[in-house]
Amino acid sequence: MLVVVSDLHLQHTSHDSVRFKRGEKYFETGVHRNVTAGAFRLLFETIITRVERMRAKNKHSSAEIMIDLVFAGDIFEIHRTPLWFDYSQKADVRPYAADPTQDTALQVKVEEILKAIEAENSVALAALRTFVTDKKVERHDETKNLDSNVKIKVHFIPGNHDRVVNAWDSTRTMVRRMLRIDLEEEEEGEFKNTFTRSAADGYASGVLIRHGHEYDAHNFPLPIGNGKNQSLNAGLDDYLKPCLGDYVTIDIATRLAMAFRAHNGAKLRDPDNKQYRQLYNALNEFDDVRPMSLLLTYLQQQFADGSDELNEAILPVVHDTYVETCASPFFIKEAKKHKLDTYFTGIIKEIGSPMIRQPYLYKILDKFVKRGFTTKSKATKGPAHFAQYDTDNSHQIVIAGHTHHPECVPMPPKGEKPCMYINSGTWRTSIPCGVEKTFGRIRDYTMVFCYSDSERKGFSDHRQFESWMGHLSEEKSGPYTEEVTELLQPTQRQVVRFTQCKVGKLKERGKAELRLRFGVDDQELVFDRNKVLNDNVFPLNDSNTVELDPNLDGELWAWGCEKDLGLDDPLPWALQRLPRQTDGAFENGAGVLYLRNHQGIAIELSYEVMVIPSVVKGAVAQPAMADAIP
Questions:
Q1: 478-499 pLDDT, tens per residue?
Q2: Among candidate residues 485, 484, 476, 449, the one with its CA nearest the CA of residue 465
Q3: Pair 171, 360: CB distance under 8 Å
Q4: Sign of torsion, CA 52 54 59 65?
Q5: Can you tell me the distance from the alpha carbon of 90 to that of 602, in angstroms, rounded to the nearest whole number?
Q6: N or C terminus: which one in the chain shows less Cβ crowding within 10 Å?
Q7: What whole-number percentage of the chain has pLDDT above 70?
Q8: Phi and psi torsions of 238, nearest 5°
Q9: What mean pLDDT, rounded, does the chain reach?
Q10: Which ranges of 60-215 would DSSP assign to H, the alpha helix?
Q11: Residues 27-51: pLDDT tens digits?
């Protein structure tokens, strides 16, 4: 039996949330995006039911049954995480390296992301471990078991969002541990990018499984074309090469949310600024919108009251993201490859105009997004069109995910054997557009079962495969606001003092009028200075000190602008969460927050965390979440 699931996108989301204080109470807002343990248990119950049905119908009820559980790519969301935006460092790390196997800094970053994903999804991964290791499911105070003649073997195929885990032994070992892949039976070394079963394995029709980004021109580095799809013969080195989709996910989708957070650090934590938090949460999940060409329409609906203040809040964020995109050599190279460079450059030029204002900005960006996601290329024929070239006399069923759109599509037969393309969909939340551009949130739950020739005898219709396309109704899905009920009671009070502002490169020549806004959580400071030259250093006095609240995020943020006639020129921004000790208090010591962009470091903002005397108020507790507030 083959069981195929894909596109779970297990993600590190804890640094996406925002904490704020209302009166004497603390709250946290964010978006529930991860798959729950209940979804895993429901899948495992379904597997047990299928085995029991085959046992009941098959004369050979004691025969050994092999279950190949195939995780077909994008199981781990490596790209969509704030951890790529670490402004305590002088330079970015990105999975755009020509040869990631030689990039030590990238390896360390991916290991950090995987550890964060594992910690946040520990309950769901524990349910997987219980099923694979103990062959049982514990759900609704009931335990169901598989019999001793059933063997479970787990397989992993990298997708475009978790492709880089295949670059190093350390990350492959982490994935094998998390998914309970048997190290003794699984071949060591790189994960394979396809999984097959043929007549020799007892599957007369033959099955080929891949992630499916091989059929997507924007998310695979090799050309895609009719009958000459180079991606179908790609080697490991090809799969590790970056593509346009990598940049879009990290430096457009994730960057928009992070830039908005940096520019509105204090406002996001203002208890009366609910709409800011609403738009921020929408930015964190807007890549779930379908069709993607309506992204801007979806975002506009988050501030439908026409608030000028909120429009102005997002203007520098959008400006920053797309100007940085235009300046990226990697993006320009990829855009040129897809024949989009001329169009994108024209749009960027319009966005960079000093006269740009709302709502004209959104008209421009709407063109940008629709052009970017509806290109008139051969790839618009759909994945089934290209999957047909994967079929041969050995494999007539092709299973792939990637699109998040479950479907079964007949393909031209091979001789007398019919062929079928099956998309395994996703378990991730989707936000489809419905009647009159109304958006709704749906938790998808899809899977594919394929049966060997002997297993088919256990069904009266001798079915070859089953493709289930359902939805789960979960309370913990989408945006939330919850009260933090278990609060830290520190034995000491701490402050952060900003000590120095060092200017890097603000202008090519001449003097600048600098305004810098910075702070921690809901506390904001302002630094104004005229006649600023590159390489100037400005000491900051004791008034640039704020007390830290251990029950908030401990997040440093900064952004600036160069004052000018008309529209001010936006400067880079930065975010950094202060590291904590095991008791929840912040680590004392000095640090630097780097405001940097494609031109280099614009500003270095130095700070120091220190202790001030405080009365002991009791034991230290770890923060936890209570039920959602009305």
A1: 899 999 999 998 888 999 999 9
A2: 449
A3: no
A4: negative
A5: 11
A6: C
A7: 86
A8: -70, -40
A9: 87
A10: 104-120, 122-134, 169-178
A11: 999 999 999 999 999 999 999 999 9
- Name the residue type at position 388: Q
Residue-wise pLDDT for 225-277, tens only, equals 655 556 778 899 999 999 999 999 999 889 999 999 999 999 999 999 998 99
Query: Which is it for the CA torsion 317, 323, 328, 331, positive or negative?
Result: positive
Q: Which secondary-structure segment (H or E) carries 37? A: helix 37-57
Cα dihedral value 16, 211, 162, 30, nearest 10: 10
Structure tokens at 97: 């390296």
Reference 159, options 477, 426, 526, 385; nearest CA is 426
The 8 Å CB, 24+ separation contacts for 332-338 are: 334/243, 334/244, 334/247, 335/244, 337/244, 338/217, 338/218, 338/244, 338/375, 338/377
Query: Is the separation of the CB atoms in 166 and 95 below 8 Å?
Result: no
Which tokens hold the place of 542? Answer: 């004791």
Strand ranges, E, within 380-477: 397-400, 407-414, 417-423, 429-432, 442-450, 465-472
- Give pTM, 2 decimals: 0.92
Dig out the tokens for 210 from the structure: 């891949």
Pair of tokens at residue 89: 């460092």
533, 529, 535: which is closest to 514 by C-alpha?
529
What distance in Å separates the CA atoms of residue 552 and residue 522, rounded to the nearest whole number?
A: 9
